Amino acid sequence: MVKEKKSANRLKKEKDVQLLSQEIPKYPVVALFKLASLPTRYLQKAKSKLRGQAEFRIVKGAVMSRALKAASLPDDFITASRGSYGLILTSMSPFKLFKELKRSRGAAYAKPGQAAPADITIPAGETPFPAGPVLSEFKQAGLDVKIVGGKIHISKDKVMVKKGEPISDGAAKILQKLDIKPFDIGVELDSAFRGGVLYTRDVLDVDEQEYLNNMVAGFSNARNLAVEVAFPTASSISLLLVKAHRNARNLAVSEGIPEKEVIGLILAKAQAHASAISARVPQSA
Questions:
Q1: What's the rounded Cα separation, in Å, for the pair 160 and 63?
Q2: What is the C-alpha separation between 285 and 180, in angstroms, rounded?
Q3: Tell me: the pLDDT tens digits for 177-224?
Q4: What's the CA gap between 134 and 141, in Å, rounded?
Q5: Which of 111, 202, 232, 249 is least enclosed, having the fewest CB within 10 Å?
Q6: CA–CA separation, 5 vs 30, rounded Å?
Q7: Structural domains of the chain sorted by starting position, each given as residue range(s) with its CATH number in brackets
Q8: How far is CA 281 from CA 269, 271, 276, 277, 285, in A?
Q9: What is the pLDDT of residues 89-118, one digit of tens each?
Q10: Phi, psi of 34 (to 5 degrees)
Q11: Where are the beta strands (DSSP E) in the chain?
Q12: Phi, psi of 130 (to 5 degrees)
């Protein structure tokens, strides 16, 4: 039987799969990022920011899937890689990687046909444009405008495009004239795999201030509970001693137990009771 000769293209794919599958296990973290609508300059910006900390690999989908499978990554991660994705290999934690990539992103102008990521609003206020042809463009776009001090002034806020709606050519031009950049562009991490755990984007996108506030609230609630049930810990022991001292003093005063610290309070209490009784007893003539 004559063996079928493999084409140069097939041999290259097999080589790419082999090289990538051998490289993947060298890194504790493997992450996927979206390639769709990603300008090259933003990819280069992310690569430059993470130089020496992360390796970016862009290969065809079939090559990536086979390499991930050959490297024994889980099926759910392999399934997630189907589509237009790139690969990041790193020793950074998935959360730090997500944070660094987020920092490398930048604002971008809208392009006709793009779906608005949120309601795009043109705010009221002065524009840098003097009265002229631009005034007609703004009016045609539905903006409430007038001339103030020789410049075009937008009288009230205007929602130019609602979330999810396609951006028209006219709207894109108006937004660019007003220097409004509604898009956040850059390397967008989709998921990451480390130590047998798959981290999705919604898990990785942590609001650090909210997380810190929750940690502080959790600590405060735990300490309050420890004090309430008299459970001694390094954080609650001082509060427990203060509470015990206060309770002991109140008990001594309540029961009339003479003790150096509370004797003044006991006498004051006795004096108050005596005065109350005296006020109720009729005075003899």
A1: 43
A2: 93
A3: 999 999 888 898 889 999 889 998 888 887 777 778 888 888 888 888
A4: 11
A5: 202
A6: 34
A7: 8-105+186-206 (3.30.70.1730), 120-183 (3.90.105.20), 210-280 (no CATH)
A8: 19, 15, 9, 6, 12
A9: 999 999 999 999 988 888 888 989 989 989
A10: -80, 135
A11: 29-34, 54-57, 85-90, 106-108, 120-122, 125-130, 145-148, 151-154, 158-161, 183-185, 189-194, 197-200
A12: -80, 170
The residue type of 112 is: P
Contacts of 23 (CB under 8 A, 6+ apart): 55, 57, 89
Length of the chain: 285
Structure tokens at 265: 């309070």
Give me the amino acid identity at 90.
Answer: T
Tokens of residue 40, six digits: 């090259």
The percent of the chain in helix, strand and coil, each rounded to the nearest 5, is 45, 20, 35
Q: What is the CA radius of gyration of the chain?
A: 35
